[in-house]
Amino acid sequence: MAEHLFMLYSRPRPEWYELADTEQAVLATSWETIDTASTTAGARLLGTWSVRGQCDYSLVHVWVFPSVDAVLAYWSALVAAKYPEWFSTSNVLGAPVCDTTRFSSSPNNAVPTGLGSGVSSRGKR
Questions:
Q1: Mean pLDDT of the chain
Q2: Residues contacting residue 105 through CB under 8 Å, at least 6 positions apart
Q3: What is the separation of C-alpha 116 from the centre of its chain, rounded to a whole number of angstroms?
Q4: What pLDDT sits at residue 22?
Q5: Taking CA atoms, which of 26, 52, 83, 102 is between 20 and 30 Å from 15?
Q6: Are 122 and 28 in contact (CB under 8 A)?
Q7: Residue 83: which of 47, 29, 3, 18 has the closest Cα?
């Protein structure tokens, strides 16, 4: 079964900064719970990066999910937990265009190994 890449770009909306720290913490905890449930179900957070330059967002969360349905369940849970109300978002969903394991022996086209669960920084200032 092919894995699916999911890249979630985000930037706090101005209203996020008007929330009390305790309110931010409650929301961030709910989103981290969703992240944990997804990793338990087989998803892997490869990492969260700060992005700059020609981009409308400040963070990108890069995930690998076992199926499109798992991606949709993850995104639906974030929407239900009001993530898009507090963060402007854009996302990208992708599937492999070829069997990348065939490149694993070539040093120039090596598939990264050891990419496991990352640490979520969602909701952190």
A1: 83
A2: none
A3: 13
A4: 97
A5: 52
A6: yes
A7: 29
pLDDT of 30 > 60? The answer is: yes
Among 41, 34, 60, which residue's Cα sits nearest to residue 49?
60
Structure tokens at 79: 């929407």
- The amino acid at residue 33 is T
Q: What is the pLDDT of residues 47-101, one digit of tens each?
A: 999 987 777 889 999 999 999 999 999 999 999 999 999 999 999 998 877 655 5
Query: Across-strand partners of 94?
Result: 5
Q: Which residue has the tokens 């890449």?
A: 5
Residue 70 has which token pair? 């798992």
